[in-house]
Amino acid sequence: MASSSGDRSQRASSAADDDLKPFIEIGKDDRGIPEVLLVSPRGAQVRVSLHGGQVRSWRNEKGEELLFTSSKAIFKPPAAVRGGIPICFPQFGNRGSLEQHGFARNRMWVVDENPPPIQSFDSSCRTFIDLLLKSSDDDLKHWPHSFELRLRVLLTFEGHLILISRVRNVNCKPFSFSFSFHTYFSVSDISEVRVEGLETLDYLDNLRNRQRFTEQGDALTFESEVDRAYLCSSDAVAVFDHEKKRTYVIKKEGLPDVVVWNPWDRRAKAIPDFGDGEYRRMLCVDAACIEKQIPLKPGEEWTGRVELSAIPSIK
Question: Which of 53, 56, 212, 213 pairs as cysteine with 109 (C-beta 3.0–4.6 A)?
Fold first, then answer.
């Protein structure tokens, strides 16, 4: 793992221009919060904040931002940041005494200096960082289960973003949890976007008291607010952005569900950290496990993986 105090933008530009070796840099953002910068040989970049273990930025080799962050996002801990890829753990949604989407996205993580090995991991790829979150005394008051949550953030040679999460039960009794990579994709205009890979799936509609329906269309398009959890999906979902001629491909393992969310105009106006018209430039498509909670016995570990890629398309 390399680090440097040199100018990040200059190094990233050099990596893109000269096809240099990838590098990793640990520093601080503009607000003094620790963050990690990963740069691939072709110049793609990922920034990960230790506030929430959250990917805040993912840029392709052309420097184009692929993730949405609201102009009204709050960056001061312990508030959650509206955008990027928040991690929802140990719950998704707002139930019981836990805060919305759990506490993992609001806590300060640390760099995991000695992570246990990941089975079937390609060790030839060196552009990655391991982060760690452990249960705190305060968390145990609201969710009385000791855990270790590990996150590997990996940037491939081609610029694909891979996130691997592992939850270990270090408790003396079983517990169960929900999990989601709550991914805010940047899009040109939501009316020009469609999602494929959800055909014929059952879904829970959060706008209708979580009633269960079956998707009837060949593709999901957007004309109003959408807040759905598609159940037991295939391992690949695609988001087509017609105007940008770009396709986001989401490949996942250990995460059977897919959450799709866009607040549309009226709902967006009611969210304090969301700009009124910004709903047009974003779409959340989450790799998740929320319908059936994940059970862990003492000493057991669960792994969930998602690979995100952005490729040119002509559709």
Answer: 53
Query: Sign of torsion, CA 68 103 306 4?
Result: positive
Query: Sign of dihedral through CA atoms 192, 233, 210, 273?
Result: negative
**Digitized pLDDT (tens) for each residue of the chain, 315 residues in all:** 333 333 444 444 444 445 567 789 999 998 899 999 999 989 999 999 999 999 999 999 999 999 999 999 998 888 889 999 999 999 987 766 677 788 999 999 999 988 888 876 665 667 899 999 999 998 898 899 999 999 999 999 999 999 999 999 999 999 999 999 999 999 999 999 999 999 999 999 999 999 999 999 999 999 999 999 999 999 999 999 999 999 999 999 999 999 999 999 999 999 999 998 999 999 999 999 999 999 999 999 999 999 999 999 865
Is 152 annotated for ligand binding?
Answer: no
Q: Give yes or no for a cis peptide into 298 (omega within 30° of 0).
A: no
Give Dmax (Cα) for the chain: 54
Chain CA centroid to CA 29, Å: 19
Contact 250, 236 (CB under 8 A): yes
> Which residue do the tokens 């250990």 mark?
254
100 labelled binding-site residue:
yes
- Amino acid letter, residue 48: V
3 state SS for 278-303: HHHHEEEEEEEEEEEEEEECCCCEEE
What are the chain's domains?
A: 8-312 (2.70.98.10)
> d(Cα 54, Cα 57) in Å, to the nearest integer?
9
Contact 258, 195 (CB under 8 A): no
H helices within the chain, ranges in order?
8-18, 137-142, 264-269
Intra-chain end-to-end CA distance of the chain, in Å: 40
Helix (H/G/I), strand (E/B), else coil: 78: coil
